[in-house]
Amino acid sequence: KIFNPFDCKHHHHINDLNMLNDVIHLSSHTYCDKNKTFIKKGAISKLNSSLQAVVVNTKTVHPHSVCFFNERLYLCSSGLASIFSIDTLDNSTQLEYKGTNAYIRGLIVTKLYFYFGMSITKSRSESKFYNLESGILQFNRKTGEVKRIKIPDIYDSVYAIVSVNLF
After folding, report:
1. What's the predicted TM-score (pTM) here?
2. What are 135's strand-pairing partners?
3. Of 52, 35, 50, 39, nearest in space to 12 by CA
């Protein structure tokens, strides 16, 4: 059986699932509206009790790495090289970080830092970015200082960061 949270016949690129207060949130590169119209735009959705998606935010491009910190939902908008946060009560959106020339994915949020992965994008023909470095970035949320944590050259993409205990 195929599970489609948008209850349509289209294929949707679902990236992440995460839960806050017994509500599952998901990120997707596309979605369908109530009329089953395919919309090629990133979305953050909540799953209702029937596991059908209710879109709550469409302000991102290629959303990845949904996580929660202090009741806010945070995510990487890879297509915009940005990090956004969403207030889970009113769905208002705030830009938290804006980078350039890189897909960013894999996000951990702490009180002082964002840790996220930066991926090489030279070989991706659909990419508007040209980035020859990969690694993990540590962004100081108070000062704006960015520190790159180098990873071995053999790894050119970061999709998830499991722990910040090593940093």
Report:
1. 0.84
2. 118
3. 39
